[in-house]
């Protein structure tokens, strides 16, 4: 109930925002339109009664001219109402979309985007947002039907109150049945949402260029197609069951309506034969009962449809009104330029209550101006640490401090404005080269000099300059980004993995004002010469900057001020390269293994392939 109230308020707010004048015009049109069918029925009755009574032609002129005028209105007004309704719908859906994605920006962390129920709701919310348009149209149609119905009820009551009562009472079960059906349908849509999202996933794989190589190489087409069709089959089964239920209920209701109308007709004809009703009354009665039944059916369907749309729209309202995913300080402390350093105090973290701990009490300090390298085996929690430093998640226990202030007391946007980062799984945007770098700091989007400097520092300027349109070349083969009719059709290009990595690095370099730099495997895709080159550049860039470097290339981290080895969720070793080599622990072991691999390959490990073990 509360959610329906909120959805109604939200929809009304959207209509209000879409334009009060337009809304008022639509309401006026609705009122006028709703009165037209009853007016036609009454005018027809007057004309028939006058004809039967052989009244002079002069008495027929007014009702006839009125009938013609009303006929014109009946023909023209729906078109005007349709245009106004569509225009209002367009404005409403634009505003709804904007509100939805503004609300999404409140989710400052990553956890919602890793929660299937949230993703299902988000998809329905996006549909609900565009449904705002049909919701508004349905609501106006509902109001029109209700008013028309009121006119017909009054007309039938004038001729036969008993008949009006029968028709109205017959409408009650229809209303209950339709609302129940609408609820069921909304529930079914929610139930099949995960199935439809999986189907979308398979569809995407079948058409995505990223998956195309493996799909072809491994012959995954039929396998993915079967899975896609299987998901479609599951949702179609649910829809079919719903349609069958609809069919049986609707046919029952139609039959009931036909029986009542037939009974009423027999009664009216007998009454006219007995002289209690005039011929005009019979025509009026037939029109009124048909109008009443049609209106009632329209009303019931309209209520059910609007109810169902409101239930779906409630997903939109839920997202728009949901609180931020991470607790935000009511009065956040300013995230000033880093002065003393970043500190992790006994940080415990796991991605969900039912998942194992990733960090089990990590205490680390990254003093201002120093570079800390974090190394460890796959899955040790290095990237998790980097994400916690950006406050994409909060520690489950313990805290992280920026110059002594808990990250939870800072505004996340303020904090992130002070960070620069290259992630292991950096994005490749289907944008131009210029925009691909500018996303690192959008204030530079029109400043090609700044973008070029960042690209030069990342060692990718030459590669970009040689592209057909230089920095304006689209780094995509999926979209046409610009339409310049005078020029040859623009052809996008894709960069190599290492070049993309340098573009990601250029994004970070563009934030040359950043106080704290996080580099998570920034050189993993580079050839040895490029890697050497990038590390020299990064070292130069990192000098007198506070930074966290994560890398499996131990040669690249040996110059860091301090190296932390993560193992079993804790810092197992901490110190400079020489110190850790002397300690002869995991770091020394990994370093020697890597170094020896360059001179002579390490012996292959013996694998126990006994399936019983
Ligand atoms: N979003 C997530 N949800 C659930 N578990 C996750 C998530 N991200 C990582 N993990 C798990 O957390 C653990 C640590 O992952 P993390 O990516 O931090 O390791 P890593 O040290 O960076 O590994 P690598 O060297 O392979 O990059 C892994 O067991 C991983 O499965």
UniProtKB/TrEMBL annotation:
The chain crosses the membrane at residues 23-48, 60-84, 152-181, 252-270, 282-304. GO terms for cellular component: plasma membrane. GO terms for molecular function: ABC-type oligopeptide transporter activity; ATP binding; ATP hydrolysis activity. The keyword Amino-acid biosynthesis does not apply. Residues 24-308 form the ABC transmembrane type-1 domain. It is found in: Cell membrane. It holds the Pfam family ABC_tran. It is a multi-pass membrane protein. Keywords: ATP-binding, Membrane, Nucleotide-binding, Transmembrane, Transmembrane helix. Residues 342-593 form the ABC transporter domain. SMART domains: AAA. InterPro entries: AAA+_ATPase, ABC1_TM_dom, ABC1_TM_sf, ABC_transporter-like_ATP-bd, ABC_transporter-like_CS, P-loop_NTPase, Type_1_exporter. This is ATP-binding cassette, subfamily B. It comes from Nonomuraea solani.
